[in-house]
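Dig into these lines:

——
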Amino acid sequence: MFPLLRTLADRPRTPARFLVLGSASPRLLRQTSETLAGRVAFHELEGFGLNEVAETERLWLRGGFPRSYLAGSEPASRRWRNAFIDTFLSRDVPDFGGAIPPATLRRFWTMLAHWHGEVWNGAEFGRAFGVSHTTIRRYLDLLTSLFVVRQLPPWFENVAKRQVRSPKVYVADSGILHALLNLSAREDVVSHPKVGASWEGFVIGQAMQLLAAGPDQCFHWSTHSGASVDLLVAAGSSRYGFEVKRSEAPRLTPSMRSAFDTLRLDRLDVVHAGTQRYRLAPNIDAMPAADLAAALRPLRQ
């Protein structure tokens, strides 16, 4: 198939374009990189985003998978997500060459959901599984390469502070996170200890999607003294910071001020769960998550 596509793509007068869905056949996706070098571009298709739907909280609770978001009821949405997890582990992972038993990978994925939003600690995970930290890192990288886990690398530079140099890990879709945590309803989510981390991962994913920022542009930054910024987007010579708060009326903190000054940010947005947008300091604004799409439109690439 692909030698034919290559010939058609190279015709000088009537070139053709073809859309190949990698999810339809992982083997096809691998062949594209082998036979169409220099002729193929890869696009990661995200789920629903804040620029496409109006109900921010529903998107957070159910996630961006269309069948989950559009389900007629919460139980129907939850059933779809549970079925997705089972099918993904039993069929999709082996198709992509993953040789890890589905039960082992599900246990790791569930444990990762409880670690959502934390700095990665391979040694601790390895002790819990009884395997080496290199083996457990292979599990993490496999789920990352399959787009169900997000690793946010650390940003560090020559500043007079001890900086964290390990990535933060997130379950990529908030709805899948809630299913892995066995949270069925809104009340379960908002009363769970990971509610703040869940909201943080959701907002970070939406900001990255809205900015069309690649993985080589997005980082977290924190120091051992407590200063941090949840998401740092480095776009050329510009730096944009995002701090995420589940509260409805966040205030300026010493950590935010330290991050803004130390990293020389052009702008810092504090994204919260309320409804009001207001100024915290020059170039530091608090904004509701529902306004994120409109606020970031001027910054899109």
About this structure: The mean pLDDT is 88. The chain has 13 helices and nine strands. The CA atoms of residues 52 and 293 lie 9 Å apart.
